[in-house]
Amino acid sequence: MQLSSIDIAAACAAFSAIWLCGLSRLPSMCTVLAVQTLLLAAIAGMLGFTHHDVQYLVLAGVVLAVKAIAIPLFLVWTARRLAVHRDIGMYLHPSLVLFCGCIMLAVGFFLAPQLAARTLGNPGAAGMALTLLLIGMLVMITRRLALSQVIGFLVLENGVFLYGLTQSHGMPLIFEMGVIFDVLVGVMIAGLVIFRLNRSFEHIDVTALRGLRH
Amino acid sequence: MSCWLLQLINICIIPLLLMGVIRKTKALLQTRYGAPVLQPFYDLAKLLRKSETISGTASWVFIWSPRVGLMIAVLTAVCVPWAGLVLPEGWRGASNFLFVLYLLALGKFLTMLAAMDTGSAFGGLGASREATISLLVEPALVIGLGAFALQTGQMDLTAMYAAPASPIVAALVGCALIIAALAELSRMPVDDPTTHLELTMVHEAMILENSGRNLALIEYAGALRACLYFGLAAQTLLHVWPGFATLAFGWHYALSLGALFLLGIAVAVAEGILVKLKWRAVPNYLAFATALSLLAALVAAAQG
Asked: Which of A114, A140, B79, B195 could link B94 by a cystine bridge, Cβ 3.0 to 4.6 Å?
C-alpha cells in the first residue's frame, strides 16, 4: 500500500491525539494539541497545492493562526491564571487511557473503508478523523478538570474538520471560517465559564460539582 | 570472513568508545572539561589489574554471573546487526528477535541473582527495582520488534534489517525502542547512572558489591548491551529512509555507526536536560513506549 503524504500527516495527527491521552500536565497537553492542529493546517495546505486552490491555503493560514496558535496559548494562559498544572484523570489513569486511545485507532483503521467517500482518495484519513473524534470524546469523559475537557472538545472538533477536509473537498471557505470562529468563541466562553467556576467553587474539578457547596 | 573480523573489532572498540562519547558530551553540557573519550578503556584496564573483595556470604553464583553475563552479551552482539553488519546465511537463525531479547533478559536475571546472593540490603532493593522495570519494558520491546517482524515478514533480526520497511512503522518502533532502551539500560529518566545516593539507585545498587575483575566484566557487558539497544534503535530509525536497506556496504556501515554515535550524543543531551522520574511515574513513562509499539503493530497489521 502506497501512502500519500496526506495520509501520513493524518496518521501523525492521530498519533499525537493518542500521545495527548497519556499526558497529565496541562501545558504539555496544549503543546500536543497545537502540533496536531499544525498537522491539519499542513494537510489543508497540501490539498491547496494539489488542487491549485487558494481557498485551501487561506483556510490553512486561518487554522494555523487561530486553532494552532491562539487557542492553545489562550488555554495555557488560563491554566496559568487558575494555577492548575496537572489533571490526574477521573476513572482511569492517563497511562491507561493511552491504551484505550490505541484501541480507538484500531477502530478507526477497521471502519475506514466504510467511512471513506467513494469518489475521493484518502480512505486512511477518514479512519484517522474517526480516531480523533473518538479520542476527543475519550479525553472529555476521562478527565477531571474542566480545562482538559475543553482540550478534548478541540480534539473532537479537529476530527470533524479533518473528515470534512479530506472526504468532501472541504466545505466552502466561508462555512469553514464560520466554524473556526465559532470554535474560537466557544473556547473563549468556556475559558470565561471555567474562570467563574474557579471563583465560585475554588476549583475546576467536574467530579466535585455534583455535591452542594458548603 | 571480513564481516566477522569487522564485527569482532566493533565489539571490542565501539561499546567503550560510545560510553566515553556519552560521558564527554554530558561533561561538556555541564561546562566541565570531562574525562578523555578513551577513559572507559583506562578504567577497564585499571579494574582488570585490581584484586577483588568478595563478601563472605557470597556463593559461586556471585563469581560466575558476570562471566556468563558477558558471554551472553558477546554472543548476542555477534549475531545481532546493531552496527549494520549482515552475517553469513548459516548464522542467521541465531538472531531470531525473541531469542535475542530473552537471552538479554537471561543476562539481566543473572545480574539480579548475583545482587541478591551477596546478602546486602541494597542488592536486593536494586534487584527488585530492576525486575519491575524489566517487566514493564518487555511488552514494549517484544511488541515493537514484533511489529517490525510482521511488517517485513521475517522473525530474524538480520533478515528484518536487510529488508525495506514502511517509514511509519520504522519511526514508531524506533521511538519505542529508544524510550524502552533508556529504562532497560538504567539511564536517565528512570535511573541516574552517576548517582551516589544508594537509595535512588537501580542498576548501581545491584553492583555495589562487585569489585576488580568482576566489576570490569559487568561494566563491559553493560556497555555492550547499551550498544545493542542503541544500535537496534538507530538501525530502526535509519529504515525511515526507504533507500537505506539497498545502500552499498561501505555507506551502510558508515551511516549505521554515525547514527549509533549520534543517538549516543542525543541520549547524553537528553540526560543533561531531563530530570529523574519519581519511581511511581516510571510505569507511566514506559506506557508511552508500549503504546508506540502497539501503534506500530497496528499499522503493520493494517498494511500487511
From this structure: B79
